[in-house]
Amino acid sequence: MLRYFAPLALLLAAPASAQTPPPIAQQQVVEAELAKAPKGTRFGLLVVDDAGTEVVAINPDQRFIPASNTKMFTTAAAYALLPGMDQPDLEGGTRVLLEPGKRKGVANVVLVGRGDARMSAAPDCKVDCLATLADAVAAKTKVVGAVVGDATWFPDQRWSPGMSWNNFGSNDATAMSALSLDSNELTVRATPGPLGKPPLLVVPPYVTIENRAVTIPAGGKGRLVLEHTVNSRAYRLYGEIAADAGEWRDRIGIDDPAHFAAWTLAGMLKARGVKVTGTVRGSYRPVELVDDPDYREKAGIAAAWDQVDAAPLATLQPPPLAASVVVINKDSNNHNAEMLLRRVARHDSGSGSLDDGLADQRDLFEKIGIPRAGFDFSDGSGMSTYNRVSPRAGVTLLRWIDGQPWGKAWYASLPIAGVDGTLKRRFTGTPLAGNLTAKTGFINASNGLSGTFRAASGKRLTFSFFANDVPNGSSAIPAMEAVLLALYAAN
């Protein structure tokens, strides 16, 4: 039975020099705050000080859907298992080559992906630009045959087990492949049309949209939804948009990344005066050939492609993978996280498969002392509802990262409360603004927040906090933030 209770208001008002209440008092304060959360919510929390002493523990060994807290594990494993994270990415550069085509003297263009998540076709691109490769081809020839996107560096595993069907076609669940362009995303825009008529759309030419939406009178509560046919380029827009609404935008995901990249390159070549006489297509490694060294031949891929490494026409130089970690952790970018996990698999096992990447992580986490029952992963981003993490696993990971030579760089990639990333608008006007650094997470009635902060006394606390089964239409975030503020004041 709990023997001591300190009211939350007293803890929040306590000066930094006040004696820290005993752990049992803090536990009661935390439990009182969590009792105010939506009924049915299941919480897990572990907080420790720099000596590893437990300050508060609420279901610390139960397993929770971690959402994007998964990315902590993915990025930490990459730092531990991939060499040269802070150096230019020598392995991942996308390359282009010319191979003999069906017509004599007319070469096919082959765009070869090596797992770079950051190549871009944006007009303002300055680094890692597809235009650089288009320029190289245009300088070499003015007539080409087929334009092929080669994504065989990884097996064809475009989505992970446990992803929700309603996320397919969205930018939260873009397809993964070794050849990637602009995070495999496109933006659709809509503005109101005449009353009773469909809205006016600006649609990227790569996709088609069946417009079934309607414009309603000003002041109405409109809602537009894009519905996607998986493994296609077709979408359907339905719902309503008010006549006085501003521009509506939605980012959509590409299901065939290799074809998309090749299609975009073909367009760039035409704009440079290069005649494209053949087809545009993508090529993938069948997942059943994941461990077969002869996968290209068995998949019907031209033997000439085996010379890719020997004689590319041009190769891009991506920025260091550490830059991807910042995008993954601060902005919670799913696409970069999934690509990074597959890069781990390609480096450690040679396959680039999802399963091997997860196995490499699992071996690492067991070696560093994370309880095996405390984690299970099915992806690298946290979009899978099959993922499970305990608060103890989260804290163990964070404390291990503290002791690594790359630990400071990794912690610098986390969002800072009230300052940037996914925490920019949280904890503003509180003592944790500019103080707490943590990875956020949200998916399907689940929240996660794991990181560190300095308490009022200057003591550094490390925590891992999860809320699952949050009732629809409710939020566990206010209760979670109140708990962390109480712990700040009490320590």
Explain what this protein looks like in three dimensions.
- The protein is of the alpha/beta class and 491 residues long.
- It has 3 domains: 8-84 and 322-490, DD-peptidase/beta-lactamase superfamily (Beta-lactamase, 3-Layer(aba) Sandwich), CATH 3.40.710; 95-158 and 256-319, 3-Layer(bba) Sandwich (D-tyrosyl-trna(Tyr) Deacylase, Chain: A); 165-253, no CATH class.
- It has helices spanning 8-13, 23-34, 70-81, 130-140, 257-271, 295-298, 321-331, 334-348, 354-367, 391-402, 407-412, 477-490; strands at residues 42-49, 54-58, 95-100, 107-112, 143-155, 185-191, 200-202, 208-211, 214-216, 223-228, 234-242, 248-253, 275-276, 280-285, 314-315, 375-376, 388-389, 437-443, 446-454, 460-468.
- The strands form 5 sheets. Strands 3, 4, 5, 13, 14 and 15 form a 6-stranded mixed β-sheet that branches.
- The longest helix is centred in the middle third of the chain and has 15 residues, at 257-271.
- It is globular and about 80 Å long.
- The two termini are 23 Å apart.
